[in-house]
Design brief:
Chain lengths: 284, 284, 284, 284
């Protein structure tokens, strides 16, 4: 049996659902999940389907072609079709903070994540021992003003060589270059340590402390060229009070960051995220 | 244009979705919402559809018959079909607590609720002035050991006379009789002032205080014969601490009760709740 | 018996707590509540005490003088002393939205709020029937470009005449003049319908929708001259998703606004808020 | 400089606060934190103080004796005095689940926890590699029906030998013997994977799924002889829906368990928990 996940979006018009479900029935697929959303402001239709195919003769590639030539063109769809056969490959970019790294590697080792981690890249050597203890290849790619270009080149080569599907910035403290973003559109996940759009940029916990907010947050989002302004995948919050110092905010924030980033990784690898207009549709 | 909402559940088997969506397309309906759920433990399939019909000649009754005779029987479905034409009628049962009453009537007056309130029943006269100030008919139906039977009879007559669709117990402090429950199955909504199944029965805030919990809750559920054990529609929680007295818990709980009960009323009237096995499926 | 609440802040230095508690013991007071906070960044000390005095001869005025002449001057304190004898008087300013109004008046009638509401001011007549049904005096003070000055004068006169202690803007849709703010410093409570500092200004739900946030919020704060930038008293949040329209956000937001504003009113009237550096200390 | 933390509880009566703060001032201590709570139901007074002593001649032992002989006896106090000099020693008991273990060791390595972990005990060998990779001594103490007594003896010896202050059961799947509980009263912290008192005992996620709750929780508590009935330290909750399978509940629950257990460990080691009447007072 093969399981196929289909993500579609296109201009809304009548009969899309019936046509797509009919098409799958004709191919002897059984729909085990369907969810849809319509953005009434923009008149855009979104759908996520999971379908099981039990026939020996089923070929995901043949199905993909048929889907493209009939449905996708007729409805002018943007679409992606994933087979359950292949696990997505994730590259981890880190710097000196270890909490998200520990959290993701702990989940990975426990079998909680449906993915592979071919390697970790860091611009510092500090966290290499953690990568080692989890037996994940670690590449030190330092980034300075002068070596920026070479560093980026090195990163691209590694990503290519290991056939990486998406990148997770686990508190990686360097700006990602436009070239990398362009190469991995909506495939670079960042964790920002504030409740965006509040406190964009550096030192958000300091800003939150100064403003005297009563709730702090963390936001996972896809990286776009504008800093901290990409499509939001998940957000989490927790209460704070006047009695919390900046250090307390940072410590409480770490727990948010870990969970909000892990959620984003799971949603992404389970093919539950669709991006449009710098926003996300998150299917259940 | 007419809008039809269809709720279905039946044994899971292949091609239900394609068959139903195809049926609607044949009747010239446009599906504007579809969501489905499969309980894998029990192998039960659930679906909720909203469909728009623009043809002058469309008749909800004819559609209902066709659906019944073809689909429903073939798949052995339990199903309900609602037309947007008719607003559900809600009877409010109250006693002496006024917070849920104020909340629901405030929302009703603001136009937030898609329903009608033909009358309020209370076993006490205390809150009559509130009903009067909102200009809702108020019936005083006292309940004592000796008058229980007559009271129930009176309630049933009023519900019948005003063609009530569902009942909301807004902190109504009397046990509902089996006869009434049988007459309105999954149509009587109660608000219980605890995070069920913790603290079933009377005085849950006192029990919560005694146990020293750090979070309290409220639960809206359909009334069944077993006390506080019916299908849960919604739950809400809030943090408490050792510094809160029982009175503080009661005050904090009031805010939970208001919101959790209002949510249940909205979900019910928007046809987003399906009940099976003493549990609910809540569609988005 | 009289109950006195004391709020103090001053530069932090040794022995403040011992000196103050000693002073109260000398005056035969029994401390029933004490809490303190030190802002280590700014080196400021905050304290809140509740003390009971049972002697017939106790006079709050005499106590206040003694406190001022000995402690307050010695430690260069900013301080306030409240007697439980007097209930604070709150003026409600409203426009056309009724949800916060219904909520506050419902709580008021239920006896949940420790305050008096001498009157309601509105720049529109729409909500007068609600004020009438709750039997609260209603003053219509329209505000147009040309009548702004007179309107403000009228407001000030009413506030003066009724000896108002603090003002609550329950979705009042006019900018408060600097003169009014100056006259009631940290005594005007506003509810802003976003998670500040995100989405300052008009139409925050529209902005939240556009940005695609996964959580929305509401913020109660004291009004200062800079729009939506005053000291935050309380904040609340709730999850939203892509499936929520702007209207859904507005509806969900109403529940937040009601609770977050009511919390601020309770904290203010229970003398649990201290303001400094455009932030608040909120005692438990 | 030495920092002393004092925890007190006793029958409530006038002038306790003034007397204690005065005593500390006489010993040249500067109170940097004070918080108090009175349980009005039981008439019990609780206080937590932090005080700094800068004099060279200050001795914690001398202070402790003076406190005992004057204050503690006069007010019939239960009290504890901790010096900041000594870090508490925590023993970790585990079985086969690794998520809480990864989480605590990650925090420990990051320097987030103010404690030492002399060793880990497990009744299985499965997680030894994790202990090894974090370089923490690991003792395998299998527990079977027949070896229960010896296992307990072995545990007690290890706890004694390493001068353990408190024990954390990080999803340890064995019942703790009364002897161990008696030896470490309010010093054994357990994480239960439900929102207690709902779903006491085994398989709470299965019970939660069956009951159809809309929110699940986790509870950290001190272990007492009655199963899952000890004083609650912290609780956390998260929303679930009909779409979540039991496996989903377990996965979501893991995140709760990690945070709620880590919070309990921090509160305990920061001396912020007082226990009485099977409840806790948690200071800020």
């Amino acid at each position: 049996m093969q399981k196929i996940t289909i993500l579609i979006h296109c201009k809304d018009r009548p009969n899309i659902i019936a046509t797509v479900t009919n098409f799958i029935a004709q191919k002897d697929g059984n729909i085990v999940y369907i969810d849809q959303h319509v953005d009434r402001e923009q008149n855009i239709f979104f759908m996520r389907l999971e379908s099981e195919f039990t026939k020996e003769s089923f070929s995901a590639d043949v199905f993909r072609d048929a889907f493209k030539n009939t449905l996708a063109e007729a409805f002018d769809m943007k679409w992606r079709i994933y087979s359950s056969a292949r696990k997505p490959k994730m590259a981890l970019f880190i710097s000196k903070y270890d909490h998200c790294l520990y959290d993701l590697l702990g989940r990975y080792n426990s079998g909680e994540l449906n993915l592979e981690i071919p390697f970790i890249i860091s611009n510092h050597l500090d966290l290499k021992p953690i990568a080692d203890s989890f037996k994940i290849p670690f590449f030190h790619v330092p980034v300075t003003k002068d070596t920026k270009k070479e560093a980026e080149q090195k990163q691209l080569e590694l990503l290519e060589e290991y056939q990486i599907d998406f990148i997770v910035l686990a508190r990686y403290m360097q700006i990602i270059s436009p070239k990398l973003i362009e190469r991995y559109p909506n495939k670079i996940i960042n964790i920002h340590h504030s409740f965006l759009p509040a406190f964009v940029g550096a030192k958000p916990y300091h800003s939150a402390f100064k403003r005297g907010v009563k709730i702090i947050g963390a936001t996972s989002h896809y990286v776009t060229e504008e800093l901290d302004a990409g499509p939001i995948i998940d957000q989490g919050v927790t209460r704070v009070s006047h009695s919390h110092s900046i250090e307390d905010l940072i410590a409480k924030g770490r727990d948010l960051e870990k969970i909000v980033l892990a959620n984003a990784v799971k949603l992404h690898t389970n093919r539950k995220v669709m991006v449009y207009n710098n926003k996300t549709v998150i299917f259940s």
